[in-house]
Design brief:
nine-stranded mixed β-sheet; globular; D-Amino Acid Oxidase, Chain A, domain 2; 21 strands; DHP_3-monooxygenase; 30% strand; single chain; 371 residues
């Protein structure tokens, strides 16, 4: 199947993966990303898994998977900051930002439109249609919703309201330049570190610098602290310094100063000194609420879902990007091998719903102790 007019809602990695692959196959592809400035600089590190390797090979960018930071071992800290447990299990974190920029370069600027949010997607017997927030519309043979957990495309596929389900806890996060890691946190360098508590745990590891730097001193330290927040308190927790509520997360710089101060005080009181030190060193901590969602189908008519628009999986799996890569590869394969669009999308939906359900279940098992 060739020559389809394909429009993709969402310009993060999932949307870019699909766009790069389908453009190679001769389709007319355009991506619409709602943010005005693009998504560079928003990611930290990620684990390169089998599906991501396969996608990078398919688009001629396999070199990206070899630019990373190696954590030589996993350590578990005790309350005083000593190493209670260690495991010789090296792991490489590659750069989200470098991956994003590399795949973004596969598209012409005219095929990656920033700052034009899609309000809704519709379809009839003749095709699919994008409706934009500015009042404009655009026709397509196929619309792909790669617009994440806040997807505006999801309901056009499922046919019913499809909200995410809050898991009962949040991830407080920080990402600091390596040269700002305090001396008392030195043992965290070059290691994947954990501290476990009832219904909570902290972890941290080095990731490449913002442009993919891997030299010592030019990297960044990424820390995460999972903590319970009752559902009734979530709206207040996700309200920014200007009093605006955000449904899923607060980006760096949006957290009210008193909340950030409380976070640092809690870290000093509850975490081992090395972790408390890196929390204190982050001037702009941010927060991500943890949600679950599983789509009953991933395609209907001329509309398909991809990545977190279809399955929101918990970050403990470290498989969100790999899942999106697997979705993009499968969609490309079925469109190339199947003569009729409806049949291709049915095969895609069955295949990737099975994969998404398995990853989501795995994430719930990993996060069960935090609920």
């Amino acid at each position: 199947m060739a020559g389809l007019r394909i429009r993709i809602v969402g310009g993060s990695l999932g949307g870019l993966f699909a766009a790069a692959l389908l453009r190679q196959d001769g389709h007319d592809v355009r991506v619409y990303e709602r943010s005005i400035g693009g998504l560079g600089g928003r990611g930290a590190g990620l684990v390169s898994q089998r599906e991501l390797f396969a996608l990078l090979r398919a688009v001629g960018c396999e070199h990206v998977a070899h630019i990373g930071v190696v954590a030589r071992e996993r350590i578990f800290l005790d309350r005083d900051g000593g190493i209670a447990e260690r495991h010789a299990t090296p792991q490489t974190q590659i750069s989200w930002d470098h991956l994003y920029r590399t795949i973004r370069e596969k598209l012409r600027d005219d095929d990656y439109r920033l700052g034009r949010p899609v309000r809704a997607v519709f379809q009839d017997a003749d095709g699919a249609r994008l409706s934009f927030a500015d009042g404009g519309q655009e026709e397509a043979d196929l619309v792909i919703g790669a617009d994440g957990l806040g997807s505006v495309v999801r309901e056009a596929v499922t046919g019913v309201p499809s909200p995410n389900s809050y898991a009962g806890y949040v991830a407080w996060r920080g990402l600091i330049p390596e040269d700002r890691v305090p001396p008392e946190a030195a043992l965290l360098r070059d290691r994947f570190a954990f501290y476990m508590m009832p219904r909570s745990h902290a972890l941290g590891y080095l990731v490449p610098g913002p442009s993919g730097e891997t030299a010592a001193g030019a990297r960044r330290y990424n820390w995460v602290w999972y903590r319970p927040v009752p559902a009734a308190a979530l709206p207040a927790t996700l309200t920014d310094a200007d009093g605006r509520f955000h449904p899923h997360s607060l980006a760096p710089g949006l957290l009210p100063a008193p909340v950030a101060d409380t976070l640092r005080a809690d870290a000093a009181r509850l975490l081992p000194p090395p972790f408390a030190a890196v929390v204190a060193a982050e001037p702009r901590p941010f927060i991500q609420a943890i949600f679950d969602y599983e789509a009953p189908v991933m395609a209907a008519g001329r509309i398909a879902l991809l990545g977190d628009a279809a399955f929101v999986v918990r970050p403990h799996t470290a498989m969100g990007v790999a899942k999106a890569a697997g979705d993009a590869l499968a969609l490309r394969r079925y469109l190339a091998e199947t003569p009729h669009l409806a049949d291709a999308l049915a095969l895609y939906s069955h295949d990737r719903c099975t994969a998404g359900s398995a990853i989501a279940a795995y994430g719930r098992r990993l996060g069960a102790a935090l609920e």
